[in-house]
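Dear H.,

Thanks for agreeing to be a second pair of eyes. The structure we're designing against is below in token form, covering all 490 positions.
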């Protein structure tokens, strides 16, 4: 797929399909569109009338242009009301165009969409992201392809000349998001702690990257009893992954990104029962996937920021060697944890990962984790929860996520609820009461960060979608990568 940024007027563009964005209730064929309509013998006017196209968000119309015209087809996409037009509207519009153009067997696509907020670079980037993410299909595990149509070869971004750098940046970000999708979608017999470590090694071959993979013994030496407790019933070795990106010279900031990396979560001896979605728990490394995806994008973008990408990767399994409910573990900061529920395992692995991250002396830490079903109950499938005591990091992440089109909602770190984690025998329990379960999970994590500005993102809902939805096709979404890259670059 090739993207070109051109100043060719849409009136003069030639190719298979010309796609035009239109705001709601402002679908008027004036100026150059009137000329274009005349050139196409009234096709636009007819299409608008026949389909009653009004520019509503999510609506579109497509038709063939007769009579040996310089363009074969036209697509109209609705952009909704101008005051609801966001950067993400461009991703959605571009996704609709890309999917229609593919279905209509078009090879060359001209795209005419409005510039958002006088920012041609963000506009070009969002269009490219919408297209690439919408057309990405994971066919690794299918022996035969059902959809035989080929994606278009060329996309011309009209009126956006000179945006080559923005296009390349968007492509890098998509490479990261697609890696995250593929890691999440791969089942637990394909994506294991070993293959996750291999993927990390591969990413770290990029310039200015380094990697350290701590095996079980090294983790033991660091006192990572919480992480190793979770790992102890797996037949696969745990892998503590630490990728470092250090730009040449003095970095502007030093950041750490920590991802929950459970390649499978059976629940442990508190095994997940019927209806718990145990068969979907291959996605329990969605946080690590976003972390590695961000690393892959950063490898291509080479920003002036030092970034550490960390994940304590393992499975949560059962067996004679499994954690018993009630076992007491000691984390690497010396705190003891009564494991009253072995299914609250993510926070145990993150505890040691956060302690490790803070020792690196970074300016801020963000963790991403498919941590709780409670967060999905609270915010649904499209929105991640954000917990942080730090207003500055909250606003940085909110801004990064808005531009990314990845929804975040700040939730309360209600200290009083820590009472629910009090243990009569250890420093804390790992599981509180049912109510506010996503909050107590965040409060648990907070015990393992002393003074570094820190935010926790519970991404249990948005890492996966059951149905096709604009630029996310059913399955893994790659959620988090775009927000993380925006945050690092901000
Ligand atoms: N990985 C799950 C959380 C999860 C649930 C992710 C649904 C995606 C969809 C996590 O390890 C877990 O099992 N959490 C428990 C915590 C409980 C035992 C306190 C949960 O949410 O039920
Ligand atoms: Mn669990
Ligand atoms: Zn889990």
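And this is the sequence the design step returned. I haven't edited it by hand at all.
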């Amino acid at each position: 797929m090739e993207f070109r940024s051109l100043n060719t007027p849409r009136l003069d563009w030639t190719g298979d399909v010309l796609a035009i964005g239109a705001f709601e209730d402002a679908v008027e064929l004036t100026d150059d569109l009137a000329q274009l309509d005349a050139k196409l013998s009234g096709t636009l006017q007819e299409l608008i009338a026949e389909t009653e196209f009004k520019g509503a968000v999510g609506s579109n119309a497509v038709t063939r242009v007769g009579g040996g015209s310089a363009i074969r087809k036209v697509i109209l996409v609705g952009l909704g009301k101008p005051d609801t037009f966001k950067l993400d509207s461009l991703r959605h519009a571009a996704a609709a165009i890309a999917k229609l153009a593919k279905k209509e067997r078009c090879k060359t696509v001209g795209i005419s969409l409005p510039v958002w907020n006088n920012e041609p670079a963000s506009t070009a980037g969002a269009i490219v992201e919408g297209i690439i993410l919408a057309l990405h299909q994971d066919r690794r595990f299918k022996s035969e392809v059902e959809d035989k149509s080929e994606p278009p070869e060329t996309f011309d971004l009209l009126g956006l000349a000179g945006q080559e750098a923005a296009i390349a940046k968007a492509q890098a970000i998509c490479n990261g998001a697609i890696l995250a999708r593929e890691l999440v979608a791969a089942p637990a017999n394909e994506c294991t702690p070993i293959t996750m470590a291999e993927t990390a090694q591969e990413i770290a071959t990029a310039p200015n990257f380094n990697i350290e993979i701590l095996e079980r013994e090294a983790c033991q030496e660091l006192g990572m009893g919480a992480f190793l407790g979770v790992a102890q019933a797996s037949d696969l070795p745990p892998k503590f992954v630490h990728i470092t990106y250090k730009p040449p010279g003095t970095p502007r900031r030093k950041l750490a990104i920590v991802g929950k990396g459970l390649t499978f979560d059976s629940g442990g001896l508190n095994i997940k029962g019927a209806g718990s979605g145990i068969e979907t728990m291959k996605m329990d490394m969605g946080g690590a996937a976003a972390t590695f995806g961000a690393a892959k994008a950063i490898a291509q973008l080479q920003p002036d920021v030092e970034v550490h990408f960390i994940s304590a990767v393992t499975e949560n399994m059962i067996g004679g060697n499994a954690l018993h409910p009630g076992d007491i573990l000691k984390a690497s900061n010396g705190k003891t944890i009564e494991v009253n529920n072995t299914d609250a395992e993510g926070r145990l692995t993150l505890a040691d990962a956060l302690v490790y991250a803070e020792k690196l002396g970074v300016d801020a830490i963000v963790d991403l984790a498919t941590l709780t079903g409670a967060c999905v109950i609270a915010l649904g499938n499209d929105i991640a929860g954000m917990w942080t005591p730090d207003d500055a990091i909250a606003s940085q992440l909110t801004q990064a996520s808005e531009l990314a089109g990845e929804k975040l909602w700040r939730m309360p770190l209600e200290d009083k609820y820590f009472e629910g984690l009090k243990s009569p025998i250890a420093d804390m329990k790992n599981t509180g009461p049912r109510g506010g379960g996503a909050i107590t999970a965040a409060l648990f994590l907070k015990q393992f960060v002393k003074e570094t500005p820190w935010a926790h993102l519970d991404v249990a809902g948005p890492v996966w979608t059951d149905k096709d939805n604009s630029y996310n096709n059913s399955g893994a979404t790659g959620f988090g990568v775009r927000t993380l890259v925006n945050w690092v670059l901000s």
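Two observations from my side: The chain has two domains: 2-143+151-159, 172-489. The pocket of BES (ligand 1) is lined by residues 265, 277, 284, 341, 343-346, 370-374, 376, 431, 437, 460 (CB under 6 Å).

Warmly,
E.
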